[in-house]
């Protein structure tokens, strides 16, 4: 596995290099956004650790440049900023996860391994997507079962896609907010619960005893086919 570190702070860059190499990763690094973008487009990497505040090009611009060129490499954004708007900007730019400085190297490794597992498992979402004895028609934004059809909202489609991409693993309420609501006013986690209740009425044969959209106590939800 090859990881690219793009960070202008030399001590941080060296610490990340040493930590990742000790875990068996092959590591390359760049000290500014412009050099990082060039390396990421010229060589294959399995993951990019991307700082936000850098000379020449900031992390948001690097991320946007990679996605414009069709790169789908997972990006973990490293930022000293803790504001919601900055995290949302990073995710909207195409980042897959973010970690706010200061962070422990143990947490960093956990995020790195989680992202790599997620993308190793990833596969295209079929349309229609079979779910139980029904199917999700993403292109038409509806759920169909036994001749019945239910219209799906844009938020509901986003939630379902995130659940499918997680391949049966739990998705936290916070992750739903970041990925589905992130570009708006950042509502409370209770909003996610309310949308799940509405979605169950559309996709579950019996919403009171859900078979597909399952609760993970004190965390979030997962999807079972």
Textual characterization of the structure:
With 225 residues, the chain is an alpha/beta fold. It is 42% helix and 22% strand. Strands 2-1-3-4-5 form a five-stranded parallel β-sheet, with helices on both faces. Strands 6-7-8-9 form a four-stranded antiparallel β-sheet, with no helix packed on it. Strands 10-12-11 form a three-stranded antiparallel β-sheet. Strand 3 (47-51), helix 3 (59-68) and strand 4 form a beta-alpha-beta unit. The protein starts with a strand and ends with a strand.
Task: Produce the secondary structure layout.
Blueprint: E1 2-6, H1 10-22, E2 26-30, H2 33-42, E3 47-51, H3 59-68, E4 75-79, H4 84-92, E5 97-100, H5 105-121, E6 129-131, E7 134-137, E8 142-145, E9 148-151, H6 154-165, E10 171-172, H7 173-181, H8 189-203, E11 213-216, E12 220-223
Parallel strand pairs: 1-2, 1-3, 3-4, 4-5
Antiparallel strand pairs: 6-7, 7-8, 8-9, 10-12, 11-12
Helix pairs in contact: 2-3, 6-7
General form: elongated
Helical content band: 40-55%
Instruction: List SSEs in N-to-C order.
Output: EHEHEHEHEHEEEEHEHHEE
> Radius of gyration from the CA trace?
19 Å
Give the strand line-up of the largest sheet: 2-1-3-4-5
Mean pLDDT: 88
How many DSSP H or I helices?
A: 8
Structural class: alpha/beta
- Indicate the proportion of strand residues: 15-25%
Largest sheet descriptor: 5 strands, parallel
């Amino acid at each position: 596995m090859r990881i690219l570190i793009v960070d202008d702070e030399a001590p941080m860059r060296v610490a990340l290099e040493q930590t990742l190499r000790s875990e068996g990763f092959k590591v390359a690094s760049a000290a500014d956004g412009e050099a990082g973008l060039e390396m990421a487009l010229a060589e294959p990497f399995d993951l990019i650790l991307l700082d936000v505040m850098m000379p020449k090009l900031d992390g948001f611009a690097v991320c946007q440049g990679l996605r414009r060129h069709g790169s789908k490499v997972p990006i973990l954004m490293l930022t000293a900023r803790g504001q919601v708007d900055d995290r949302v900007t990073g995710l909207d730019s195409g980042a897959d996860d973010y970690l706010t400085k200061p962070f422990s190297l143990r947490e960093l490794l956990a995020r790195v391994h989680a992202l790599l597992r997620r993308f190793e498992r990833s596969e295209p979402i079929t349309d229609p997507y079979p779910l139980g004895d029904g199917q999700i028609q993403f292109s038409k934004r509806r759920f169909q079962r036994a001749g019945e059809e239910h219209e799906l909202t844009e938020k509901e489609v986003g939630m379902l896609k995130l659940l499918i991409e997680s391949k049966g693993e739990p998705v936290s309420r916070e992750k739903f907010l970041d990925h589905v609501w992130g570009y708006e006013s950042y509502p409370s986690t209770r909003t996610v619960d309310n949308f799940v209740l509405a979605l169950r009425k559309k996709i579950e044969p019996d919403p009171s005893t859900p078979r597909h959209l399952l609760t993970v106590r004190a965390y979030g939800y997962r999807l079972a086919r």
